[in-house]
Sequence to fold (392 residues):
Amino acid sequence: MIAVVNGVLVTPDRVLKGKTLLFDEKIVAIRDADEPIPGGARIIDAAGGYVLPGFVDLHVHGGGGADFLDADPDAIETVLKTHAKHGTTSLLATTLTCPDEVLYAGIGRLGDAIENGTPEGGSEILGIHLEGPYFAAASKGAQAITEQKIPTEKELNELYALSRGHIVRFDAAPELPGMDLFADWTRERGILASIGHSAANAETALAYYAKGFSHITHLYCSTTTEHKEGQTVHGGIVEAAYLEDGFTVELIADGKHIPRETMLLCFKIKGAKKTALITDAMRAAGTEAKESILGEKNTGTPVMIEDGVAKLFDRSSFAGSVGTMDVCFATALRYGVPLADAAESCTLTPARIAGFADRKGSLDVGKDADVLLFDGERNLKKVFVGGKEIKE
Fold:
């Protein structure tokens, strides 16, 4: 058992001082500092630093020089170990638009990885996040979309079978044909349907909220806002996200994709309980690479790393983030998001959105012992996944 003493415990509703956190594989107790510590426990003195739940990343493609779609047998473990060192204790493994054979093989490998369990020293994969392939070419960002693909029940069932039921989230553009089928199919399986890489107007976004799309993929990035269609002005996905209280949203919080004012506006309107911070990390995250590949290493898109962000070589679009969740947390704090709100948006909110709040996202007794220790300057010092310390 581990006992963390002299720490400041950050919870969604308050910040606790004068407490001792006890855990093994699960959170065992939060006790007053003057209560006795069980014999044989390893005592860690937090020295006035902060104690948080492990970060939960809803949207991560790669890191450490690897991508979840790579055929390299060590690629998945490399990504998981890279992000674990930066405080991500659980995540959704994200794909992107790519050739069918690459996508299908990658989904199969991810299904295997989930069923094989969390590697020692790595983050836990909570499930698979399919970012595409049913996207609008007009809002493709850096995704390699040459033509719009339309969902069919046959293909949806094939993808689900390949994943062995581990698809947790599926992003799509609701203005495309076939989206009633897609909405029904995801809803019947309890899969989170998210509006992403879409040119939809507000009317369409709100209509598909009513049909089951409840989340917005990287708000402000490849999403519409007020615009003209012909000679008529329409609201966009951004306005729909703010108008419908039920929508949850995510922000790429690497300090490059979203400016301070935009993040603060989102927190002001949606609040920490509806706003998740994500990395959208690609393979160069956690490395010093200056050039990289977005997607699978043999078929992906060449990108450059400039000014701390991945970009297409023609600089027409960012191409995913090289940030990690400790960077996202620090960015939110630097922008002025209150400590408890910043922590919640990196922990309990994404856990709730993904459907894993029963065991992730907070320091509640009985939950998995995914624990982060920061010093008083909010620098990450120790990471525990399921009670096991991640070593550098």
